[in-house]
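Tip: read the tokens left to right.
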């Protein structure tokens, strides 16, 4: 079903505000002001802020998955794909607020939490399969356990809500890039970093 211009404008406005200030801090009034609409118009399109937040998050996850799939289907080496994923992570995490990340990782809404958990499981499964295929073709070490990589990925994702860890960085982007680069390249400068 095609979305109206108002619907699209409200979703984009909410995304921008959530990205900067987090979901909890943004009000329906803030979204209406940003989108240039009345509260009545808002409620004609959405039942509440939580419904809108779910739409925004679903759009972000679908966009992220589409970008991941596009990179993984390119006819380039696995190392080059990982390099492109690092660049994608860099672009996607620009100007994201700590509040938004914390609101996502500590979602109180059971439906939103379930959606995020399902998305995480599906993404991890896809990445696991891609790692396994790269290992079979000799593009990553044969001696490393893929399950170990996945456990480390989960550990690093938990760091994104660790206040002690995050306090070392000026912003979420820098923390996300530190984790991503360490996860993919370790301590040493990569010889074939794409």
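Filled-in amino acids:
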């Amino acid at each position: 079903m095609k979305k109206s211009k108002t619907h699209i404008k409200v979703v984009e406005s909410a995304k921008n505000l959530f990205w900067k200030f987090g979901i909890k801090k943004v009000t329906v009034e803030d979204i209406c002001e940003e989108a240039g609409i009345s509260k009545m118009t808002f409620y004609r399109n959405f039942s509440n802020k939580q419904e809108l937040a779910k739409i925004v998050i679903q759009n972000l996850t679908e966009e992220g998955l589409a970008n991941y799939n596009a990179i993984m289907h390119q006819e380039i080496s696995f190392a080059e794909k990982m390099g492109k994923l690092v660049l994608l992570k860099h672009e996607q995490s620009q100007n994201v607020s700590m509040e938004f990340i914390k609101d996502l990782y500590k979602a109180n809404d059971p439906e939103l939490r379930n959606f995020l958990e399902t998305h995480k499981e599906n993404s991890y499964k896809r990445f696991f399969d891609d790692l396994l295929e790269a290992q079979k073709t000799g593009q990553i070490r044969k001696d490393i356990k893929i399950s170990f990589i996945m456990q480390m990925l989960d550990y690093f994702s938990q760091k994104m809500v660790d206040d002690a860890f995050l306090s070392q960085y000026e912003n979420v982007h820098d923390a996300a890039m530190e984790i991503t680069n360490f996860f993919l390249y370790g301590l040493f400068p990569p010889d074939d970093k794409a």
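The longest helix spans residues 110-136. The chain has a mean pLDDT of 88.
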